[in-house]
């Protein structure tokens, strides 16, 4: 249809966290470049809102909580052959270390890291991914900078970064690439829950730390579309920081 | 649920605040130790001890620990 290396026509991507925020925008971005998605999210109603925003394609919509093994396996049964995976499911937790307990740790690591690792593992085992594919994990700048209350979230995202580098080497023979994208604060329903914990002054003060201000979901989705396309075919094992300049200071 | 236990929980949650130094009348956002970590710790304490979730703005609207206690009770 189009000989641009950025074109995704005819390709199928699994996108998790597709019911809102960055994941939803990634689905939109893929469909705009001619690709199709298997869009997975916990909330069926919000997932159908995502559906209404996509350009035509062979899209599949599947509502599941990926931290639950049975639901993850039910998804696997429905998967077509994939040209890539975007793992964008995740939760934020702002919890001082004194208040961390096993239950909180499991709930954050369960969806942010464990489900990502096992989902990708099963896709590989079942040979559901084509050669020359691209896998992208949505991590966070929190994985390499400290902030009070961020220990659980940051640790789960740092685990993703490390996982992705090992995975990049393990799938390199099939020319499949693996990269992480590390956003700063992007205005989404997830970061809205963070903001509810803070006062308006504190949020305004935090945004001032960003030379380009807070980001929007499309600022991340556009980079992910690039990483899924053949235009990035020699890029693997990287951690792409997209934070409006926050961490160059 | 009594205010004394609530004040002790607050003292316990905030770093560098000694036990029995605050009361219901204390203006908690004016103490030297009040910062963004203290706010997160207060939210976490209210969640773990009282199973109540408040917003940052709601905490900010309270002047004294008694007012914070009353707000917490009203959310239960």
What does this structure look like?
The complex is a heterodimer of chains A (249) and B (76). By secondary structure, chain A is α/β, with parallel strands linked by helices. Helices cover 42% and strands 17% of the residues of chain A. Chain A has a single domain (12-242), classed as Rossmann fold, CATH 3.40.50. Chain A contains eight helices and seven strands. Chain A has a seven-stranded parallel sheet, with helices on both faces. With 76 residues, chain B is mainly α. Chain B has one domain (3-12, 23-75): ACP-like (Non-ribosomal Peptide Synthetase Peptidyl Carrier Protein, Chain A, Orthogonal Bundle), CATH 1.10.1200.10. In chain B, 55% of the residues lie in helices and 0% in strands. Chain B contains four helices and no strands. Chain B starts with a helix and ends with a helix. The model of chain B has no long low-confidence stretch (mean pLDDT 94). The interface between A and B is medium-sized, with 14 and 15 residues.
Mean pLDDT of chain A: 96
Helix fraction bin of chain A: 40-55%
The total tally of domains of chain B equals: 1
CATH class of chain A: Alpha Beta
Reported by name, the CATH topology of chain A is Rossmann fold
